[in-house]
Amino acid sequence: MCVHSHPSRQSLCKTGKGHWCFIKRAPELSIEQTTEILLHLSPDEAANLKEGINFLRNKKTGKDYILYKNKSRLRACKNMCKHQGGLFIKDIEDFDGRSVRCTKHNWKLDVSSMKYINPPGSFCQDELVVEMDEGNGLLLLELNPPNPWDSEPRSPEDLAYGEVQVTYLTHACMDLKLGDKRMVFDPWLTGPAFARGWWLLHEPPSDWLERLCRADLIYISHMHSDHLSYPTLKKLAGRRPDIPIYVGNTERPVFWNLNQSGVQLTNIKVVPFGIWQQVDKNLRFMILMDGVHPEMDTCIIVEYKGHKILNTVDCTRPNGGRLPGKVALMMSDFAGGASGFPMTFSGGKFTEEWKAQFIKTERRKLLNYKARLVKDLQPRIYCPFAGYFVESHPSDKYIKETNIKNDPNELNNLIKKNSDVVTWTPRPGATLDLGRMLKDPTDSKGIIEPPEGTKIYKDSWDFGPYLKILNASIEDEIFRHSSWIKEYYTWAGFKDYNLVVRMIETDEDFSPFPGGYDYLVDFLDLSFPKERPSREHPYEEIRSRVDVIRHVVKNGLLWDDLYIGFQTRLQRDPDIYHHLFWNHFQIKLPLTPPNWKTFLVHCE
């Protein structure tokens, strides 16, 4: 995992005049780098390396590596896909002897350049250092910072019963009592996420707002709306606008859209990665970045009296795969289904049978990956969370029926088959007493379930107010002028990429919306042709519900609301994932929305 400093990253504060402004934080102190020998080849083994791709294994550790040889030039990496940790094998479609294929999702890596070629323009593989030793053998070295949580280590102290309690509220939201301090993770407790696509599966405890208001600090892992919930924070800000909210120093600020949201929060604290944040003499926490999506995803270690709680949230490879072992409590996502793929795709191979088999296979892979991770890290207790959502709006019935998610009990049973880790499937309002559970996992008071008769699953959702906000965008004055199309995509700033996209505004059933827009965008030169160009080009057709696409366009929001929120239907030819395109519209759009006021003035 490469860690880069971002001197332009900023935190937020409010001026005396009531306006939000950006405050640059102080530069971080560097962390000493260390070198680890991952593989040592003898002189004979080094001499017998063939030209091209060599698959290597450290017999002592069982770890696999790839070394690419081109005459005297050597490049090496771990045999581990950056997407979800799959193993690479020989690519039978490669006639040049430079690429390998992942066994999980068919991602392809050109090891001569260490760039992924499927999906094109996506990631670069982290390289290892190749050095020759004094005897003409070869060393594969990894340069790493030391595990930051090992700085200023603390020995675990005895915990009194009731001293550390973890209460599950809903989805990824936990309420932690840590001595006389309270900390809350990722409060999504009301309203939808991803425009109107996700709704809470569990009924939060009735006192959820009081619990938030009692918190001494809140951690929000990333900007996705099932973790950063503006409807929830709006209710909190009405009573405690100054509550300290901590976020990691991600490339795209977690609260990039705070001004636009209208939520009045005044105490957002942006902290550097890998540095202990001291709350009191017994409590500290450290935020870490994701190895796959460091620009937006984070995870956290909370430590109280030497006992660590690890929350990896949604990270694909938290901290690049380096995590503390034998923590007191670990929690992570488990469910899958947090993507429009493949449910929203059609044409070609995307039959209902293919989708069902793909979803079944991917969910099983995720379960096995999580079980292996828990087995490797050996926490005392493991809790699956951050996957309790449902596509409850009637218009999304197809998605709800198709997007099958993992069962937390199935994961916990798999973990228990392979390890002695204690597992906890949380229910809203259930409380785990960490002191009791560490002393005796069979203690009947170790986990207090909610009172009998407590409502666990939601059976109704208040769609009206949120759909009203979305529907208001349909008749906005902006869309009376077809020139909004050029204005919007010029603002978006994505071009010089050979891709033609047809955008179609639709009704609830993804049929063309009467009077809606249907247009082409050629991203090679950012033009808007009437017909597809004659040159060879990849093509995508994106049908979007008119209320959501216009709300996204009007407010300069990220396309996660469309894609992760299941508000599109897609076809593509050829069947290639265009990482640069989707990454731009899901992560890299400008931080401020289009200037529609100026646009309308010029339209008069």
Overall description:
- The chain is of the alpha+beta class and 604 residues long.
- Helix content is 20%, strand content 27%.
- It is built from 14 helices and 34 strands.
- Strands 20-19-18-16-15-14-29-30 form an eight-stranded mixed sheet. The protein has a seven-stranded mixed sheet with strand order 21-22-23-24-25-26-28. A six-stranded antiparallel sheet has the order 3-13-12-6-5-4.
- The radius of gyration is 25 Å and the shape is globular.
Number of strands: 34
| Spatial strand sequence of the major β-sheet | 20-19-18-16-15-14-29-30
- Mean pLDDT across the residues is 91
Biggest sheet details: 8 strands, mixed
Radius of gyration: 25 Å
Helix content: 10-25%
Spatial separation of the terminal alpha carbons: 52 Å
